[in-house]
Automatic annotation (TrEMBL):
One of its GO terms (molecular function) is DNA binding. Residues 1-18 have a biased composition (Basic and acidic residues). This is GreA/GreB family elongation factor. Residues 82-152 form the Transcription elongation factor GreA/GreB C-terminal domain. Coiled coil: none annotated. GO terms for biological process: DNA-templated transcription elongation; regulation of DNA-templated transcription elongation. SUPFAM superfamilies: FKBP-like (SSF54534). Residues 1-26 are annotated as: Disordered. It comes from Sphingomonas lycopersici. Keywords: Elongation factor, Protein biosynthesis.
Length: 157
């Protein structure tokens, strides 16, 4: 018998929608990162109310909302970074293979590499954490790839 005659609905042929993956490790956030999570939840709450009649859209919003609510519940406000050592919440000026760069080390959800904000779990951030001004660090197979020029704490307790 043809599949067309036995199929109850199109639901059985839809791709499954998995939950959004939660990054491994602790959910460290800056004060700005915590505010961004709260703002995203408020946006999704408003969108869910507007999409009342659109069931597929409501399901998509509910999925996103579960992710952000989990991130809010698990958020850990990181302590203020030391002024003279690179840590979570530091702004760092450095050269990478001779090219000057400035980045800020932030939480996974706050990361925006185009804006110079990289996650503390990124390889570059891991290479920088613990260093201080004037340090020369290995990165990507080169022993002197990074030279730290300046370190600044970006938030206080």
């Amino acid at each position: 018998m043809s599949v067309a005659f036995r199929r109850e609905s199109d639901e059985e042929h839809k791709e499954p929608r998995f939950e959004l993956p939660i990054p491994p490790g602790p959910n460290l956030v800056t004060p700005r990162g915590r505010a961004l999570i709260d703002a995203r939840i408020a946006e999704l709450d408003a969108a869910q109310a507007e999409a009342e009649a659109d069931e597929p859209r409501r399901e998509e919003i509910a999925r996103d909302l579960r992710y952000w609510q989990t991130r809010r519940v698990t958020a850990i406000l990181a302590p203020a970074p030391p002024a003279d050592e690179i840590a979570f919440g530091s702004r760092v000026e450095f050269t990478l293979n001779g090219e000057p760069r400035t980045i800020e080390i932030v939480g996974d959800d706050e990361a925006d590499p185009a804006a110079g904000k990289i996650a503390f779990s990124a390889p570059l951030a891991r290479a920088l954490i613990g260093a201080g001004e004037g340090d020369v660090l290995p990165f990507a197979g080169r022993d002197d790839a990074i030279e730290v020029i300046a370190v600044e704490a970006t938030f206080a307790d």
